[in-house]
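User: Hi! I'm working on a homework problem where we have to compare a predicted structure to a textbook description. Could you give me the structure for the chain below?
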Amino acid sequence: MKTLRIWFACSLGLAVTVMFGLDYGFLAILLPMFVLSNTDSFNMPLLMLILISAAWTTIQAMLLVDVLGGYPVIFLLAVALVFLVKSIAMTNKKTFLIGYMGIIIGSVILNLSTYPFIDIEDMAITIWVYCLLNIVICALAYWWFPSKKALDQPTTEQKSAEPSQAEETEAQPPQYVAENVFMVWFIAIVAFVTFQVFDLYDSSAAHASVLVILAPMSCAGALKMAKVRIIGTIMGCLAGLGMQLILGLWFDNAFLYWLLFTIAMGPFCYWQTQGPAKGAIAFSAMAALTVPMTTALSPGEKDAFFALLYRFSSIFVAVVIGAILIFVLQQCFEYRRRKTHSLLLEESSI
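Assistant: Happy to help. Predicted structure tokens:
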């Protein structure tokens, strides 16, 4: 029943974006998938938290750009401070989602908002609309496909490790918590500066991918998440290329486009219920499938073949570089701990 619930929500979200021609259609698919994969009953507090987090993050980004956009150095310092606050918020299970969404959405919006040809207000309003639509879609999904055993807490088969990772972070010694906060903050800042300096405004998916792997709030967990992200991206891009080949000259037909897209999403929706490992791969695959296929290929629009190839290559390079940076930080942290431990042993022996 859970698989059908997720599949129905993703299909309905796609149908709404196709009918009304909405931009950023992947949000209408990924947001319901995220919520329904992590809950077994209608969770209004979680849905409202997502809406509030998105609204606050977008408003904060717009204010930063409007007030400090003309002062690059001060703007960068303000962004660094905001990212630091959100990284600290990720260490608490009650504020984890606010910090995590703030890092991802905030980084992408702040990066794009510095380009004059991008309407940041329109993007913010679109995100708000999708968060509201997410509530409606999830409500309909639980109504049509109710859970036989509704639970107040998320299941143990969550694909996402956010709440549990936040709890583990809280239980860690202060030194490890500080290292995790620094790791998230450092990667977020390096990614933001890199995408600004090289004008990679068309690689927002790669930018977000680097930040997505930070969810485990640890170097070891982030490295594992990087592997999952790459595998999922390969699968999603292959599914998208298969859609492109099958649609061929018929991609102008909105119904066939929606039908084939829905069929392609089926296996990934099923994997969402098959444990955390498959669920994480499935979510990455859905992101790789939906982003190019709802932006580069839609009824009456252009071919998505090169968009899919570019998406995979950009995500692969970004995630690999991010994983290398995380590995270097991990080695630095371990060296520092060994050095501190040896100094303590020397002092105790004196």
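For your comparison, note the following. Residues 201 and 294 are 18 Å apart (CA to CA). Confidence is low (pLDDT under 50) at residues 151-164, 297-301. Good luck with the assignment!
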